[in-house]
Write a structure and sequence with these properties.
By secondary structure, the protein is of the alpha/beta class. It is built from 14 helices and 11 strands.
Length: 330
């Protein structure tokens, strides 16, 4: 099969689709263009997104708006302490009429899966998403069921200090391409929100601006974006530095390297470039890596944060300057 053509019209189609999605999402999520852009980057990178923030800032609304805008199938899973893994993946039930077992799909069988307050469920239930997110499939009673394409998990999470929450297992966090925080709106945006949200539900006015099939095609376009050996080495150098940092007891995994490069490809494509530059990688380091890292007790007691450690690493790792980052003609 030929590599997808990531040049010319394909990139123009991708940026036009992304711009339409951004506009429609911003009719619901006021004053957060950078969060919307990060969400679209993860979507076209074929990844999964973790939205972490305090309750009431629009985490679930962002997820629902994106799902409606791409006109794909949507399932929402409300994670609670009594949620079972079978509620997520599905279960085989004996049918008295057919005298055989039949599979009842769980909440992950959709294009967009909204995992609401994922850290309110037990670690065992959270782990039910591991196979789904990595391999795009579910195995129940030795039978494998493939998930829809595209498939994206958008999970919301309250800060771990809040009552009734469980920490996400390291393996679970590592499967999220990026983590973003919405934050409180600026006063002007909050004032507009009062005008809009105290009347009709703004989600009701959201119309699809693309289709799930189109998104799947554009994800393939992103995979064809060129990454030079120099930029690949730069990404690896950044990842390696997290493993050697004296402030970190757990650095980034090889999966993190893949996610960083895939996200950089998507960012470059959204900028209508068919090649990645070091700035694309730098721009995404915080959102792609920070949730995967564990600080040493000394660094945590000293008030250091993972984002600050990453900023130090980015400042210290040499940026590639020699050689071309653009693909060779012909």
């Amino acid at each position: 099969m030929a590599e997808p053509d990531a040049a010319g019209g394909d990139l123009g189609e991708l940026t036009a689709t992304a711009n339409r999605l951004q506009r429609v999402i911003e009719t619901v999520i006021e004053g957060k263009p950078e969060v919307v852009r990060a969400t679209l980057t993860v979507l076209f990178a074929g990844g999964h997104l973790l939205i972490e923030d305090v309750p009431g800032v629009g985490k679930t609304m962002l997820s629902k708006t994106l799902a409606r805008a791409i006109d794909g199938t949507v399932r929402r899973i409300q994670f609670t302490p009594d949620l079972l893994p079978s509620d997520v993946t599905g279960v085989s039930i004996f049918n008295q009429d057919t005298r055989d077992f039949e599979f009842r799909p769980g909440g992950v069988f959709a294009n967009i899966v909204v995992g609401d307050e994922i850290n309110r469920a037990s670690p065992k239930t959270q782990s039910a998403l591991l196979e789904c997110m990595e391999e795009r499939q579910v195995t129940v009673d030795a039978t494998t069921y493939h998930l829809d394409d595209p498939f994206m998990v958008i999970a919301t999470q309250n800060p771990i200090e809040m009552e009734g929450t469980y920490p996400l297992p390291e393996a679970q966090r590592d499967r999220f391409t990026a983590r973003v925080s919405i934050g409180y709106p600026v006063p002007e945006a909050e004032l507009r929100m009062l005008d809009v949200h105290t009347g009709d539900n703004p989600l009701d006015a959201v119309e699809p601006v693309t289709s799930a099939g189109e998104v799947a095609k554009l994800i393939e376009v992103v995979r064809g974006v060129f990454v030079s050996p120099g930029v690949q080495r730069y990404a690896i150098d950044l990842i390696t530095a997290t493993r050697r940092s004296p402030d970190l007891r757990l650095g980034a995994s090889p999966r993190a390297t893949l996610h960083l490069v895939r996200a950089a490809k998507a960012w470059a494509a959204l900028e209508q470039r068919d090649y990645v530059v070091p700035d694309d990688v730098q721009r995404l380091v915080r959102s792609v890596l920070s949730h995967r890292l564990l600080l040493t007790p000394e660094a945590a007691m000293g008030g250091r944060r993972a984002e600050q450690v990453l900023d130090s690493i980015v400042a210290a790792v040499p940026v590639p300057t020699a050689g071309r980052v653009e693909p060779m003609d012909g």
